[in-house]
Hints:
Elements: H1 5-12, H2 17-25, H3 27-56, H4 60-89, H5 99-121, H6 126-161
Helix pairs in contact: 2-4, 3-4, 4-5, 5-6
Amino acid sequence: MTMTSSQNLQSSGLYTQDQRSRRDTTVWTTVQGILAPLQFLVFLVSLFLVISYMITGLGYEIMTVSIIAKTLLLYIIMITGAIWEKVVFGQWLFAPAFFWEDVVSFGVIALHSLYIYGLIQGTISADTLVLIILAAYVSYVINAGQFLWKLRVARLQMEGAS
């Protein structure tokens, strides 16, 4: 009886030895480790500005700049994350260990991109754009939680391997 790749993944943990070695030696792990908290910080500032705008009706321009900055960081982290997956798992996206995180990431990107599209086209009202970005930010928090959970799983795997 032969194991499928998902059975192999389940029996060996989140990473195989080779994948763990590639993860630990690639510069892309460091890049992700820098970009993820930076993006989260920009998210927190932007969320504050969005909520402030919703309450006061003031600060539309600075809120918009913060959302654009958050979106650009999201695009950068997605591109560098795909490179990281290629180095570690041998495929650009949807590696079995991060399949659902990637699926949700595409939803996050779609919502952020819809916001940018609506902003550029001018065909979506400011109130609707705010609702779109709130949905994008909720999905981002869910996605960040997925990745934090995987980080915890990886740490537990390392402790179990020691």
